[in-house]
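Re-run with default settings, no changes from the original entry. Doing this only to confirm the output is reproducible before filing.
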Amino acid sequence: MMNRLFPSALIFALLCFASLQIAPANDKPLLHPLFSDHAVLQRGCAVPIWGWTDPGTKLTISFAGQSKHAIAAADGKWTCSLDPLDASFESRVLTVETTPPSIRAEVRDLVVGDVWLCSGQSNMEMGITLCREDEEIAKADHPNLRLLTIPHHIAYTPQETFTGSWQPCSPETISEGGWGGFSAAAYFFGKELQQELGIPIGLIHSSWGGTVIEAWTSGSALKPFPEFHTQLKEVHDIANSTSVSPLIDATNEWFLKHDPGTVKHWERETTDTSAWRKATLPNNWTNCGIPDGHEGVVWVQREIDLPADWTDKPLVVQLGTISDTDTTWINGQEIGRTDSFEITTRYDIPTGIVRSGRNVITLRITNAGGGGFQTNGAPMFIHPQSAEEAAIPLSGPWRVQETAKLAETGRPLVGNPNVPSVLYNGMIAPLTPCALTGAIWYQGEANASRAHQYRSLLPALIRDWRKQFKREDLAFHIVSLANYKEAADHPRDDEWAELRDAQAMTAKSVPNCGLAVTIDIGDAADIHPKNKREVGRRLALSALAKTYEKEVVGSGPWFRAIDIEDQRIRIHFNYTDGGLKLKEPSTKSFAIAGADRKFVWASAEIDGESMLVSAPAVPHPVAVRYAWDSNPEASLYNGAGLPAVPFRSDEWPGITDSH
């Protein structure tokens, strides 16, 4: 989220860009990776199956007694659709066979149920091992709850494949990978659905911490937003560049424009670093003496003495785990770049670069939060490729110097996940047109400063995904932002409240949408609250009520209308199932205002299915707000124990009773 950003691998992006431009069709898999062992196929609708082979090749696709045929198009892509399938726990085999020549792909243990896409930023990405759920993990043996994680990938054109495979849920698979294992919110959502529906559930987890909604939206869907046109043009220019290395060119251009170290060629071994800070690495930037909160460019350099017989040998240098990105030189010659702190930085050094005796290794590092070298990361060393036992450690004294600040320069386009369309291209497009039931979405913190714009962006993303997945009624359930930060001592305008309002407006106005309110289960001190169990449960209740039309209470009270009664406001609600409840005396939950729009705290009491609020300081009230703050006192629930949706009566266009 805002304080946790996860840039992806530039090298990986370069390779994917190259393959997209020049790779023959038969370099892509015969069967798309969505259809791996243990996959879940969507029940109740035609199921697209696709892959690649040589143009003109005939194929036979077989599953569950169906036999379909396809012919590869001029670009090598073939597609077919299975007829609608009933939900089934039966373990089946999907086969694809070409004729001629006979090439066969076979994937096993496929089941049929409902498939959900789980996306957003770090509260969706947050893994279950980080949520104090050790007991849950130990018993998470759910073979028909299937998990698939899409790796982080920035892309400048829509990608067609990804690296990954389905896994049955187990204590081992749920704990693997990423930021603390599989998404905790998604897991609890899927587990709840499977228990209630009694069918296989497939969860496709595709999220990235700290990312903005426009990154998850396709370029075509963003055309109505002129504020994104400049960056979309930059994305287009990279994608259509005739340069051999368009991404590297764009990165170099940014550094030459913003970073004095690049302009002055600090990568050279002749650079005078005597005025730089002394530091011991690995370490974070704060412990290196760099001012707290520095987000931007930091240069590091040290000398190393190498044996004479290493000069004619290929070497390996390993630099641990670096936050976030680096370019590395030895004796002024670039040896590699990495744009992800999720991997160990390791480069091969060709012969002819090092010399006997003194050598200089230099890194240019860019971080967007929490920068430095992980102290518990892989060790730092250099050694001949053929003699690891001769390694010379690189941990210890270095020189460091910070330069450009991202707050003043903006982030580089390349390696930046917060660019319009790049995560759609890299992490959503490869899934299309997979047959899905719906999506769950936990995102918004990174867009809170542009909450009014979010009113248009979230519906645009929903329309976009429905179009791309070819399902107009694709279900979409939104997590309303949890409470966070210090509570206000007086009513105020607040960007997090505005963002929640935009989320609620979307759920209210866009068909087949639901809202899971988490206003009472956040953490004032932690933007990543650990109670993802309840987040998943409330998402599941929303889906069971709206998508599956089960007789369950799927929502807390929703504001419907107000009446002015003398010096009081009467508030009417929908979804008061079991009656309105105040869990504690309400002193700072409701605020009212007169014509001057100066809000003050109001007392509140339940009167049947409505609330009465008033304040002596406001004898002629005209407007009311509830839970209107980043971390409000949210005391109103319905009889089912679900919290009321935060609201304001002074700006709520298009109110209807149709939710």
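The first strand starts at residue 40 and ends at 42. The first helix runs from residue 10 to 22.
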